[in-house]
Design brief:
The structure holds two protein chains of two kinds. Chain A is α/β, with parallel strands linked by helices. Chain A is built from five helices and five strands. Chain B is built from six helices and no strands. The chains are: A alpha/beta, B mainly alpha.
Chain lengths: 121, 128
């Protein structure tokens, strides 16, 4: 079963994500801040990361840069899931190489479709 | 999104917790407005409630949180000179949200227009 790491501080969105992703046949793991997310990244070795940008204990953009700068994690596909509307932030994020940028509120089916597409399923 | 009503109680509980934290932060800032990292935290808290409120279809709450988020961004850019007045208004908005948020239907049907207008007037923040 493909492993999906969620780095998202909002409890409600985490619950929705866990239920949606599990139902679609993937194995989700939730983390609630930037520090915890980066720790789980090394121990879990996920097949895909869903990353929020406004996080406690660090900005998601820094997490993204760290993922992309480490040879162990640089090829992990990343979906950004954020309520940030700023196009400048989006451009900066996309320049780091992400597989998708999805704005909140998100459509569950669209998200699962994107995950399946990225993971080749 | 559909079938989200079942998340109503969790949404209310979670948002109430976050708004209470925001209120504590405002109290700290009223006493010590030079704590720069507290403005970032305020931005994040308002942003988080905005995100889940949008997802749950609570447009009024999402909108007032968006205005509060912008105010905290404004504080970081040192855009305001009437900080004390803004803190009082932010605290009032938090009080109002907390008074409504225990009931999902109530919060969903509240437009917060008066609060939004007041915050806009004080800060001249534009809603795009």
């Amino acid at each position: 079963m493909k492993k999906i790491l969620i780095i998202e501080d909002d409890e409600l969105i985490n619950k929705v994500l866990i239920e949606t992703i599990s139902k679609a046949g993937f194995s989700p793991t939730k983390t609630v801040d930037a520090f915890q997310g980066q720790q789980a990244l090394m121990s879990l070795k996920p097949d895909l990361v869903i990353l929020d940008l406004m996080l406690p204990a660090g900005h998601g953009l820094d997490v993204l840069r760290n993922i992309r700068s480490s040879f162990q994690t640089q090829n992990i596909p990343i979906i950004i899931l954020t309520a940030i509307q700023d196009e400048g932030v989006r451009a900066e994020v996309e320049s780091q190489g992400v597989q998708a940028y999805i704005k909140k509120p998100f459509d569950k089916e669209q998200l699962i479709g994107k995950i399946k597409q990225i993971l080749g399923q | 999104m559909t079938n989200l009503e079942k998340y109503g109680p969790l949404f209310c509980q979670n948002s109430q917790k976050l708004i209470a934290k925001l209120q504590d932060l405002i109290k700290i800032l009223r006493e010590n407005p030079s704590r720069k990292n507290a403005y970032q935290e305020g931005q994040r808290l308002a942003h988080t409630v905005k995100g889940s409120a949008e997802m749950m279809g609570c447009r009024g709450l999402a909108e007032v949180c968006r205005v509060m988020e912008n105010i905290f961004i404004g504080f970081q850019k040192e855009s305001f000179k009437n900080e004390k007045e803004i803190f009082v208004a932010l605290n009032e908005v938090c009080e109002l949200i907390i008074s409504k948020i225990s009931d999902f239907k109530k919060i969903k049907n509240t437009n917060f227009q008066k609060s939004i207008s007041k915050l806009q007037k004080i800060t001249l923040t534009e809603i795009s």
